[in-house]
Request: fold
Amino acid sequence: MANYAHPIAIVGGGITGLVAAHRLSRLGFQVELFESSDRLGGCIRSEREGDWLVEAGPNSIQDNCPEFTRLLDELKLGTRLHEAGPDARNRYLVRDGRPLAAPASPPALLTTPLLGLGAKLRLLGDLFVRPRKYDRDVSVGAFFRRHFGREVVDRAVAAMVSGIYAGNVEKLSARHAFPSLWKMEGEHGSLLRALKAAAKTRRAAGGRKGPPRIVTFDDGLGVLPAALAAALPADAVHLGARVTAVTPGTPCTLHWEHQGTHRTGTYAAVILALPAKALAALAIGGPAEHPLAGLKDIDYPAVTSVFLGYRREQVRHPLDGFGLLAPPVERRAVMGVLFSSTLFPRRAPEGHVGLTVMVGGALRPDLGLADDERVMSVIKAELADLLGVEGEPVFVRTNRWPAAIPQYNLGHERHLQAMEDCERHHANVHIGGNVRDGIALTSCIAAGERLAAQVAAG
Ligand SMILES: Cc1cc2nc3c(=O)[nH]c(=O)nc-3n(C[C@H](O)[C@H](O)[C@H](O)COP(=O)(O)OP(=O)(O)OC[C@H]3O[C@@H](n4cnc5c(N)ncnc54)[C@H](O)[C@@H]3O)c2cc1C
Reply:
């Protein structure tokens, strides 16, 4: 049972830690949030410069989680929410060097030029796939090939996986990277039938028809961490505080470095909402005990996100979509391009457009780490070729993520097990965030709520 004579320590000021701190504070707990950098928000960073709005990291939230809706109400952010425009329903996939509209409905699947006739027939073969219980984990590539065949994986799934994980379909674990599809397969066999059944259940429960809304805020995603931080008591946040060790117990002792000095404090419980490498480095138990050391093996590929502004007439493509993804078989330098100013309003000045280009990821580590000159030269060539972009951008901002997104690769269960064991062995230590609970922002929000509920339950 936690000792609530002391505050709760939340370590990591990304969205997971902020949500956990917010919830506990609203429940009446005294909280202290420790963040090693000089700002809150973690991967979320929105920067407005004049009429340009640049998202350094994530660009949008899929509004499919009740925990997010609840936060919007509590923080009174409903009026600041922006829904993606109707054009954002169109997605482009590159085939033979050309962006082609991805099929938006099952009938469109049959006519799309993105797939050959053999691939379309093979896709329908999914309807006859029987439920299967695997005795071991399989890669995302193998999992989807079983259902849809090789061409669909090469042409569509691999591109989608680049867009979500910046990952490699042959390395990612199907079970951990796509847990709901993994479960559906176990129950239904066919994914097409399972998805149809899920949509029917959602509609019967009064849920919305079609895919979830894609949203952001008037000043970008950074509005959310800023509102969460503003709702915390003024003295609850320690910036520039790098936590180095936890001595668990009732209460726990936390050790951190702040401006070159070592500090300690006593807390009823500790929530760790940190990236894998930070968890691996933490001494938990004694000064030489690092029970999460193995997490250092979790791969975090480097990604560079470049926002480019152009005058509208410099871009031949109508930009009538969410963006484009290039599957690895196309051997392009870019993973994907978001049509940022189509996706959401107030991203670019009148008469201009904004594009966000992602390079690097698990399949092109060289480009994730390349210098600005090389990155700009490959991006300019790709944009000219794929979207008919001419001339120099009028605005450029480059954001680098040397360790972008944790890869739930084959064997990921050993890392999940290490976190579970650590919690079991050490009373009042709770672990969560994108390394454990899913990489989407909504998964991290749900993780923050789960961690807070765990602590509140004592
Ligand atoms: C380029 C990019 C694009 C993305 N796009 C999307 C998208 O469009 N939609 C979407 O849903 N998701 C997207 N994601 C994923 C999503 O942004 C992340 O999964 C999520 O923000 C992670 O939140 P977190 O709180 O778990 O971790 P983080 O945001 O990583 O926060 C962890 C915090 O811990 C701090 N920290 C580290 N070590 C210590 C220490 N020792 N002591 C104290 N503090 C420490 C860090 O400084 C950091 O602030 C994207 C991610 C990236 C990188």
Remarks:
- The longest helix spans residues 441-457.
